[in-house]
Amino acid sequence: MEPMLRRHIEHVVPLSDEEYAFVEKHFITRKATKGAMLITKGEPVRYVYLVIAGLLKLTYEDKKEREHIVSFAMEDWWETDYPAWFSGDPASLSLKCIEDTQVYCLTLDGYQTICQQLQKMEHFFLHKANRGHMASQDRILSFLTDTPRERYELVLRKQPVLLQRVPKALLAAYLGLSRETLSRLYRSHRSAGGGKM
Length: 197
Hints:
By secondary structure, this protein is an alpha+beta fold. It has 9 helices and 8 strands. The mean pLDDT is 91.
């Protein structure tokens, strides 16, 4: 069976066996248990992570020590504190496992070497970055313009698995809703024949 990394890349660009071997040698794999921190605010960010299995939560803590959920990352998703990873500055975000998780890890040096040596991989990473930017803009616009129901329905359409895997308190925080509002929207969706959450 092909490694998940190769299948993931080849959804965007084809690789010869030699090219894949070159790419793969720049990645390491790591397992982390539920509750483990992959990135801690204020510390260096060594890797960008590709999730093999599990679920991660990227958060920002404001001056009043309130936690804001920036994103969730699950299988086939990339995540890190990108500004800190690219600049070498300390992390302003934290990345925590909310399930037992296995990830591929790539350093900035490894990323740059891969892109310099294989133009098709530069295309692959650009494709992934563009998809990430589009998702971020959708989320920002949703927070600026959508009602709570519309934000909930956006997740139902675009990330339905989150409704099954993310604890309701975290999902409510991610959507900017109270737990009670989320429960009310969930019940309304169920009564309309929307299935399980």
